[in-house]
Amino acid sequence: HVANNAQLTKELCDFRNHYGIRDDFEYQNLFCRRLAENDFNCRQLFYANSTVKDFVQRNMANVSIQNAGMKMFSRNEQKVEATRFRLSQEGIRHLLPYMDKQIVKINQDDMLKILKTEETMIPLESLQCKDAIRAQSPGSLVLYTDRADPVCTWVGYHTVAPYVGKEERVHMLRMMGVDCSEIEEMMRSKRKQKVISFFFASPWV
């Protein structure tokens, strides 16, 4: 079962069946950065080797630990999904080999459309893989063209939204042979604009 500072409550283990995570996954290496009495309200589950996990558990009462482990699950605040936790892009490459559910292989055209769009939500009707996606449960879903580069998404009744940062999107697109120079230039321009806006908003200017 999943281990935490003491033990994560049974209610937090529902993702095992929802995502079809096999028994050979190292459940004992999952933990949250809360004291045992707050397990039920844990918002994120992290994965680390036994040494790191044990260190965090022994010291969290006395030391503020801000960064330890790989984020594997985040608390789901949406009512559409059957499980309390959604998948995290940060840990999906490690978790995917153990998953048997909520996974869909899609073609490259659909993956390019998902990764290149600037829209937050992508209409399912615009994707060739729409029927395969609709055959899954709503909520967290892993899409992939190459299993080495899975993409965590959130699927609603009519849309799909990638949960991938812009930098990782660029990396994935580049690995697919896409010229990302225009996208990268746009990202740099937006960063500069944010800096300028912050500067002129400063009370010292």
UniProtKB/TrEMBL annotation:
<dbReference type="Pfam" id="PF25378">
    <property type="entry name" value="PUA_NSUN2"/>
</dbReference>
<dbReference type="GO" id="GO:0005737">
    <property type="term" value="C:cytoplasm"/>
</dbReference>
<protein>
    <recommendedName>
        <fullName>SAM-dependent MTase RsmB/NOP-type domain-containing protein</fullName>
    </recommendedName>
</protein>
<dbReference type="InterPro" id="IPR023267">
    <property type="entry name" value="RCMT"/>
</dbReference>
<dbReference type="GO" id="GO:0016428">
    <property type="term" value="F:tRNA (cytidine-5-)-methyltransferase activity"/>
</dbReference>
<dbReference type="GO" id="GO:0005634">
    <property type="term" value="C:nucleus"/>
</dbReference>
<feature type="domain" description="RNA cytosine-C(5)-methyltransferase NSUN2-like pre-PUA">
    <location>
        <begin position="12"/>
        <end position="99"/>
    </location>
</feature>
<dbReference type="GO" id="GO:0000049">
    <property type="term" value="F:tRNA binding"/>
</dbReference>
<feature type="domain" description="RNA cytosine-C(5)-methyltransferase NSUN2-like PUA">
    <location>
        <begin position="102"/>
        <end position="177"/>
    </location>
</feature>
<dbReference type="GO" id="GO:0030488">
    <property type="term" value="P:tRNA methylation"/>
</dbReference>
<dbReference type="InterPro" id="IPR057286">
    <property type="entry name" value="PUA_NSUN2"/>
</dbReference>
<dbReference type="InterPro" id="IPR057285">
    <property type="entry name" value="Pre-PUA_NSUN2"/>
</dbReference>
<dbReference type="Pfam" id="PF25376">
    <property type="entry name" value="Pre-PUA_NSUN2"/>
</dbReference>
